[in-house]
Structure formats: structure tokens, C-alpha cells
TrEMBL record:
One annotated GO biological process: regulation of DNA-templated transcription
Name of this chain's protein: Uncharacterized protein
Organism expressing this protein natively: Acinetobacter proteolyticus
InterPro entries assigned: Ribbon_hlx_hlx
Domain of life: Bacteria
């Protein structure tokens, strides 16, 4: 598998943030991805029942 060194750097950033915020690495990645999608206005506003409510994701910024 071909990888870039930046991937390793990003993975380390996510791992460190997960430790600081008491989350799993997977949970932290998901949290950061959802926040980024919301900031870029790429996260759908109308979601089917059962999908995550991003407004309840702690630490995400309102745009």
C-alpha cells in the first residue's frame, strides 16, 4: 500500500487530540471530520431519523 508521510503526521495529530479529549482515535477522527464538513457546509442539513445531529457534536463551530 502506498502512503504519504503526511498521512502519518495527520494520524499522530488525531491520536494526540484523542488522548487530550478522552476519545478513541476512531471517535476523534469522526468528530474532526464532522466538524470540518460542517464548517465547509458540506454536511447535509436535512437528515433521515437516526443520523447524527451535528449540532450536538461538542466542539464544532457554527457557521
Amino acid at each position: 500500500m502506498y502512503t504519504f508521510s503526511v498521512d502519518d503526521e495527520l494520524a499522530e495529530i488525531v491520536k494526540q487530540a484523542a488522548q487530550r479529549e478522552n476519545r478513541s482515535t476512531r471517535g476523534q477522527f469522526r468528530h474532526l471530520l464532522l466538524c470540518a464538513l460542517k464548517q465547509e457546509q458540506l454536511y447535509p442539513i436535512n437528515q433521515p431519523k437516526g443520523d447524527i445531529n451535528l449540532s450536538k457534536v461538542e466542539g464544532c463551530y457554527e457557521s
